[in-house]
């Protein structure tokens, strides 16, 4: 698993990149009450706003971590956004991407580096 | 952070693992480890303990007695204070010369004096307003008492176990009851829509009383986050968001707080700041009204969201002043102001969220029915 400074995690699975937010981020946001996911098939560029999350505290944007195509989104989150708080790195995943340039993954932190990053 | 004030429960909040944030000049718990959703639901289902010691407790005395003090307060507030019996409390407002609301507060007749409980952010201004504006009265803010709120369906049982007699109090009764923590000034009231109590206790005893309440199985600590979602579900205004110096009680749907005796034709009509504007609005209707909104879907329409009469085009006809997801409602909810011609319940209105106009329906408040002991 790789991590971004925006507190997203990325996991390679069957040639795709699964993306979600970290437990740390979910905890900081508080109880999540609304998630707006992108459409499958959408082409996105790194840092495009692709997901909107609303917690009991505030709204936040989630940025595309890499260039590519959104090939699948976690539809059940629309009705059960609390899954992100319960299982941020499992059932709480947001979307799967086909990476245009897999080398962009090299920029991200590993788990040890992310742990240092969040202190 | 060093200039923030703290309440007598500051150390206890830290011990309980609260997330502390600045609020109205105090460092206050926004949530405990359980989180806003669970705290909210716990208060609706059992009992929640809130630290509201940051609020101002102000004693008003007059050498001629409590009636003279009540008559003086009526000069600042469009409320029937003289008609408030001993041992009773009611919701009140300070108004300004334009009819705007300077603060909302509770006022109690405690026999030989009045006790006003005012918002933390307004208390310095309120004390100044009362000191100048209540002729002949002695106005003193109590700095030596904490204030706790115990709210929820189990609040009565929990408090009765520690302070026998509170179960006999009715909604908006006030009483002084002896206890292991000194004399407690108790009111059966709150700001969550639930039954419950607000308890004024000596500062030095506040933590001990809070610990005794938290030792009761049904009672959990609740932070400001859940306090906000509870009051919003109950359709209650937050001063500074939903009402302020630019909104009148009539616009805000608080005309019920202005008893008939203070309205046109009443025995003590007018005689408060902004009376002309407020009484005229009661007769003619205001140009805008506070309304409740239920957005379709799950996206909350938060404070500042502009409201439109149609899905496309046109100028804004209002805006949201508070908005959140209602944990008990299971859906988003907002309150805000719209021009009077669009304020009818059942009307569809559009709120602009992230550049998209999303539909919402105007509904009656509270969003969640109140559960108080009348």
From TrEMBL, chain A:
Modification N6-lipoyllysine, positions: 57
Keyword terms of this UniProt record: Lipoyl
Cofactor note: Binds 1 lipoyl cofactor covalently.
Keyword Signal carried by entry: no
Lipoyl-binding domain residues: 16-98
GO cellular component, one term: cytosol
Biological process annotations from GO: glycine decarboxylation via glycine cleavage system; protein lipoylation
SUPFAM superfamilies (UniProt xref): Single hybrid motif (SSF51230)
Needed co-factor(s): (R)-lipoate
Annotated Pfam families: GCV_H
Job of this protein: The glycine cleavage system catalyzes the degradation of glycine. The H protein shuttles the methylamine group of glycine from the P protein to the T protein.
PANTHER family the UniProt entry points to: GLYCINE CLEAVAGE SYSTEM H PROTEIN (PTHR11715), GLYCINE CLEAVAGE SYSTEM H PROTEIN-RELATED (PTHR11715:SF3)
Annotated family: Belongs to the GcvH family.
Quaternary state and interactors: The glycine cleavage system is composed of four proteins: P, T, L and H.
Name of this protein: Glycine cleavage system H protein
Classification lineage: Bacteria, Pseudomonadati, Pseudomonadota, Alphaproteobacteria, Rhodobacterales
UniProt gene name: gcvH
Automatic annotation (TrEMBL), chain B:
Enzyme class: transferase
Pfam families: GCV_T, GCV_T_C
Reactions catalysed, as given in the entry: N(6)-[(R)-S(8)-aminomethyldihydrolipoyl]-L-lysyl-[protein] + (6S)-5,6,7,8-tetrahydrofolate = N(6)-[(R)-dihydrolipoyl]-L-lysyl-[protein] + (6R)-5,10-methylene-5,6,7,8-tetrahydrofolate + NH4(+)
Gene Ontology biological-process entries: glycine catabolic process; methylation
A GO cellular-component term linked to this record: glycine cleavage complex
Keywords noted in UniProt: Aminotransferase, Methyltransferase, Transferase
Binding site for substrate: 198
Domain Aminomethyltransferase C-terminal: 288-368
GO molecular function, one term: transaminase activity
Domain GCVT N-terminal, chain residue ranges per copy: 9-260
Residue stretches in coiled coil: none
Keyword Transferase assigned: yes
The EC number(s) this enzyme carries: 2.1.2.10
PANTHER family: AMINOMETHYLTRANSFERASE, AMINOMETHYLTRANSFERASE, MITOCHONDRIAL
Family as reported in the entry's similarity comment: Belongs to the GcvT family.
Family annotation (NCBIfam families): gcvT, PRK00389.1, PRK13579.1
Protein name (database record): aminomethyltransferase
Gene (UniProt): gcvT
